[in-house]
Amino acid sequence: MPADFTLTDRVIVVTGASRGIGEAIARAAAAAGARVVLAARKQEGLDGVAASIREGGGTALAIAAHTGKPDDIEALFDKTLAEFGRVDGLVNNAATNVYFGPMLGIDEAAWNKIFEVNVKGYFYAVRAFATRNRGGGSVVNVASVAGMRAAPLQGVYGMTKAAVISMTKSLAMELGPGGIRVNAIAPGLVETRFAQALVDDEAIRSHFVSRTFLGRHSQPHEMAGAAVYLLSDASSYTTGQTIVVDGGMTAT
Questions:
Q1: What's the rounded Cα separation, in Å, for the pair 97 and 174?
Q2: Contacts 24+ apart (CB under 8 A), 55-61
Q3: What is the pLDDT of residues 95-119, one digit of tens each?
């Protein structure tokens, strides 16, 4: 039997979908046949992506939601069910990093904000998805190589991504009996607005690029293939895993 990478008629919720990695994954999922629900804090950013997907023949619904707020997450999934009657997949991608510097210099407000979105937000979304899913499905958590090794000047962000990797394993164990698979992808340096400060800094970019086997940083669309694989039946026996997509940087 050939591997099935299609997502025909599946309903996939993608957070942080107005740009960057989330937008790329949403577009790829729609191209694979999914009906995608795009979530982010600002409606206007989502509307443009949704319109573009529909112009290309896909199905997309844009719903503004702050992933760090449980009520917003509950409303997001309720609206998804009201529109499509089901939800088959979730891509947790919305993230923030409001502090760049030595770990010991962070203040409590910045610490709380990073954990609110990057850890609590992911958990809230998986919980909302799992309680509404009835036929099995797939969760893809976007982590980071910053959660797998030292993350200079991004230590607290790295802590949250390490928590996401741990959460992925535990939720895979708990939700597996119900047919829900939970996996993660860990990008390296990707050229997005979120990571623009890193990409634009020659010393930091060189630090990353010199450690990759491919000799370059990546683009958002290069993360989408791993996500579509994990959402599809091609990965039907894959759960609790983190797929690293970093050009080989962490292989040494």
A1: 29
A2: 56/30, 56/31, 58/30, 58/31, 59/30, 59/34, 59/35, 60/26, 60/30, 60/35, 60/36, 61/35, 61/36, 61/37
A3: 999 998 999 999 999 999 999 999 9
**Are the beta carbons of 154 and 103 closer than 8 angstroms?**
no
Give the predicted TM-score (pTM) of the model: 0.94
Average pLDDT over residues 177-200: 83
**Angle (deg, nearest 10), helices 20-31 and 221-231:** 50
Quick one: which of 239, 227, 234, 243 has its CA closest to 31? Answer: 227
For residues 89 and 140, the answer to whether their CB atoms sit within 8 Å is yes
pLDDT in tens, 3-13: 799 999 999 99
From the list 99, 122, 124, 157, the catalytic residue is 157
List the strands of the sheet with 35-40, edge to edge: 59-64, 35-40, 11-15, 89-92, 137-142, 180-187, 242-245
Is residue 237 annotated as part of the catalytic site, yes or no?
Answer: no
> How deeply is 238 buried, as exposed, middle or buried, from its count of CB atoms within 10 A (0-12, 13-18, 19+)?
middle
